Amino acid sequence: MKIIIVDDSVTLRIQLKTKLEEEGYEVIEAEDGVSGIEAIKSNQDALVIIADINMPGMDGLTMLEVVLENQLSPQSEKIVLTTETSEKMKKRGKMAGVAAWFVKPLTPYRLKVLLGLVEKLINKE
C-alpha cells in the first residue's frame, strides 16, 4: 500500500517515512507541490497523500486542488500536515478533498495519532 508524502522538510519526511515503512507501507516522497503532482501521476494507486501547505514553488493546497481538478488520484485520502490553522485554509482544504487536517509539530505522540489516522482512512468502510 502506497503513501505519498509531500513536504519541503527533509527531516519530517524521513521521520514520517521511517514510521510508515515500519507499519508496512511503501512511501513515495516529494519536496514541493510540483514534484508532488509528478509523484501522484506516477503512483495513482497511492491510498493516502500527506501534504504540507507552506512549500516553495507550488503550495500543498494548490497541489491538492490540481489533483482534484484533474482527477489524478480519486481514490486516495488526503491529509494536510501543516502549521496553518485558519478556518479559511481549512475550508479551502475541504473543497480540495482533504479528509483530515493535522497540525504540526509532529511529536512522538502526535506521530502515533497520525499513523492511527492513516490506518483508519485506509480501512474505512
Word description of this protein:
This protein is α/β, with parallel strands linked by helices. The protein has one domain: 3-Layer(aba) Sandwich (Rossmann fold), CATH 3.40.50.2300. It has five helices and five strands; from the N terminus they run βαβαβαβαβα. The protein has helices at 10-22, 33-42, 60-69, 87-95, 108-122, and strands at residues 2-6, 26-30, 48-51, 77-82, 98-103. A five-stranded parallel beta sheet has the order 2-1-3-4-5, with helices on both faces. The longest helix is centred in the C-terminal third of the chain and has 15 residues, at 108-122. It is globular, with a radius of gyration of 13 Å. The relative contact order is 0.18. The mean pLDDT is 94.
SSE layout and pairing:
Blueprint lengths: L1 E5 L3 H13 L3 E5 L2 H10 L5 E4 L8 H10 L7 E6 L4 H9 L2 E6 L4 H15 L3
Parallel strand pairs: 1-2, 1-3, 3-4, 4-5
Strand order of the largest sheet: 2-1-3-4-5
Q: Which sheet architecture does the biggest sheet show? A: 5 strands, parallel
Let me know the average pLDDT: 94
For the terminal residues, how far apart are their CA atoms? 17 Å
Task: Name the CATH superfamily assignment.
Answer: Response regulator
Fraction of helical residues:
40-55%
Number of strands: 5
How much of the sequence lies in strands comes to 15-25%
Please mark out the parts with pLDDT under 50 across 5 or more consecutive residues, or reply none: none
Shape: globular
Mind telling me the C-alpha Rg?
13 Å
